[in-house]
Write a structure and sequence with these properties.
five-stranded antiparallel beta sheet; Flagellar hook-associated protein 1; eight-stranded antiparallel beta sheet; flagellum; 22% strand
């Protein structure tokens, strides 16, 4: 037995050729996205014994491995999920911030224009041209509010569309991963090209949601979406989709489906772009829309209320300029009913005090036999509600919930958004500029009054006998404990009553009626003197209406009308800046994880070029051994001839 130089050389050539092939493949794929560097592992063949010594018999390539660090890949997926979420949030917030900065500036500008025209009416109360201008500015303000709400609705639709398109792509990835798993199970998970493709798909998936990867003994990988939903199990692929929102249909939810079973996914556990889109919709778009509705209610209520306190140019009680705040077209979407409810109660929401509204949302829950609780979804505060006949739930922040029909069952829940739909429903209902109530009645409270009662005239008939004019004023003494009133003339003589009344309405019988607002608990006796004479040049109510510009009417008396919109704009600006900072931070973390993966699995062209030269020399040296073996063989043959 002798050392087989020719076979050793042949093995060396083949091994070097394999090394050159792997190195060349690395170089060729240096710019291939998702490619992991490969290395060929060489091993020595079994040695043979000659005499008392063991001699090597050559080499072979024992394995071609894909350089892969599972921990580094996991870090990269986590970094990708965080980066995608941060970038999506920043993009969406930037779009909304731009909307409020450019188009949104028309809202406060329109409101300021209205007040400027009201001031002009106060200067010239009888000028029809100025009144026309004021009415036109109010119409334009309503249209601006409508347009702003339309833009917010479009943002919601666009967000919903993005969610739907992402679920479509996730399903495509799910099917591809299932097919790859099937192929890997056939090869024992050794196909580097399939593994690279699998890893690239998982990396793409991590853009849309948080991903957990579970390696299987078969060489396949199971994929969990959002840490709770199995998307791929071996070769079996599940699917995700969107379903109608609950309780609001225009806010669709995301579901995971396996066979005939469907599960609603909690968006707070998703992360990635999907989680960011859901967060943007629920934490920014919905509140912005509700706060815009709060402003619309504030505008309509403030001007309509001032109208009801004054006289128009015809001497009549002022009528609404804007649509009533509780009109069905102003209240769409105030109540959302969950599909899981077993009762048949149909609810509506009536706004009682716009100034107490917060612009937020609530959750109403019912526990049998008669416990009603209202939870503020922003603060978490829970308030008990009282059920008054025939079906009023009182105790809300400026609103009453009405059970119009049916009954609640134990565990029923509703989402209450008191300001929803108001901005899209805001419109002017006044068409005659003479209807703007610039003048006002003179109602004087007695000095001895309790201060717990207010009155407001709501109808007049100037042709009625005894109608109170200057010099013929009438004083009405009201006993709210006994619900009676008595009327006195200017000399103090009783001319009517005491008469019973049903609160809050009092019909005096002298051509006017009014309603009382009694804030006392046990009732009081207060007197008010009425002078309902009318002069065309009277501007007192117009002056009071103009003062609404600076009046803190909203959020419990802390914010002006313009302030409501500016607070929303400021909040969106702050969120946008915070989103930018998060995006920059996430980019730095992702880049660090990416660099680590590249340092281990990426192709270094300088290193591969050096390897190419080394394996080329090895190939040439092995070929030289073959030449030497051939020469030795020829010499041996020649020597025995």
């Amino acid at each position: 037995m002798a050392i087989d130089l020719l076979n050793i050389a042949r093995q060396g050539v083949l091994a070097s050729q394999s090394q050159l092939g792997v190195t060349s493949n690395n170089i060729a794929n240096a710019n291939t996205q998702g490619y992991h560097r490969q290395v060929a592992t060489q091993a020595a063949t079994e040695s043979q014994r000659l005499g008392n010594s063991f001699y090597g018999t050559g080499t072979y390539v024992s394995d071609v491995k894909r350089v892969y660090n599972e921990f580094a890949a996991r870090e990269l997926r986590i970094g990708q999920t965080s980066l995608s979420a941060a970038e999506t949030s920043y993009i969406k917030m930037s779009e909304l911030d731009q909307l409020y900065s450019q188009i949104g500036k028309m809202v406060p500008a329109g409101l300021n224009d209205v007040f400027a025209n009201i001031n002009s009416i106060a200067d010239l109360p009888t000028d029809i041209g100025i009144r026309n201008g004021a009415l036109s500015s109010m119409q334009q303000l309503a249209k601006t509010m409508n347009q702003m709400q339309s833009h917010l609705d479009n943002q919601t639709k666009q967000t919903n569309s993005q969610i739907e398109s992402m679920t479509t792509r996730i399903n495509e990835i799910s099917k591809e991963l299932g097919n790859i798993n099937l192929e890997l199970m056939k090869t024992g998970g050794q196909d580097s090209q399939l593994l690279d493709k699998q890893d690239a798909l998982i990396q793409e998936l991590s853009q849309y949601s948080q991903v957990n990867v579970i390696p299987l003994d078969t060489g396949a990988k199971s994929i969990m979406l959002g840490g709770s939903v199995m998307l791929v199990s071996g070769e079996v692929s599940m699917s995700v989709g969107v379903t109608t929102g609950d309780p609001y249909p225009n806010e669709p939810r995301i579901t995971a489906t396996t066979g005939n079973q469907s599960l609603v996914i909690d968006p707070s556990k998703l992360g990635g772009q999907l989680g960011a889109l859901f967060d943007f919709r629920s934490d920014t778009l919905v509140p912005a829309s509700q706060e815009l509705g709060q402003l619309a209610l504030g505008i309509a209520d403030a001007f309509n209320e001032m109208q009801s306190k004054g006289f128009d140019l015809n001497g009549n009680i002022g009528q609404n300029i804007f649509r009533d705040i509780n009109d069905p077209l102003m209240s769409s979407g105030r109540v959302g009913e969950y599909s899981t409810n077993t009762g048949n109660a149909k609810l509506s929401v009536n706004i009682d005090n716009v100034g107490q509204l917060s612009g937020g949302g609530y959750e109403l829950s019912f526990t049998a036999p008669g416990t009603y609780e209202l939870k503020d979804t922003q603060t978490g505060k829970i308030s008990p509600l009282t059920l008054n006949p025939p079906g009023e739930l009182v105790g809300g922040d400026g609103f009453t919930i009405n059970i119009g029909s049916g009954a609640m069952a134990d565990g029923d829940k509703f989402e209450i958004r008191p300001t929803s739909g108001a901005a899209s429903g805001l419109t002017t209902v006044m068409t005659d500029p003479k209807g703007i109530a610039a003048a006002s009645p003179k109602i004087t409270a007695d000095a001895a009054n309790s201060g717990e009662m207010d009155v407001k005239v709501n109808s007049i008939n100037r042709a009625a006998a005894g109608f109170p004019l200057t010099g013929g004023e009438l004083t009405v003494r009201i006993d709210s404990a006994a619900n009676t009133f008595e009327v006195f003339d200017a000399s103090g003589a009783s001319v009517g009553g005491p008469s019973a009344f049903t609160p809050p309405q009092i019909n005096t019988g002298f051509g006017f009626s009014f309603e009382i607002d009694d804030k006392s608990t046990a009732g009081v006796t207060d007197s008010f003197t009425f002078d309902l004479s009318f002069a065309e040049g009277d501007n007192s109510n117009a002056v009071a209406m103009a003062e609404l510009a600076d009046a803190k009417l909203m959020n419990g008396g802390t914010t002006t009308l313009t302030g409501v919109f500016e607070n929303t704009k400021l909040d969106i600006g702050n969120k946008t800046k915070a989103a930018e900072v998060r995006a920059d931070s996430a980019e730095a973390i992702y880049q660090q994880a990416y660099n680590r993966v590249q340092s281990e699995s990426g192709v270094n062209l300088d290193e591969e070029a050096a390897n190419l030269m080394r394996f080329q020399q090895s190939y040439q040296a092995s070929a030289r051994i073959m030449t030497t073996a051939q020469q030795l063989f020829d010499t041996l043959i020649s020597s025995v001839r």
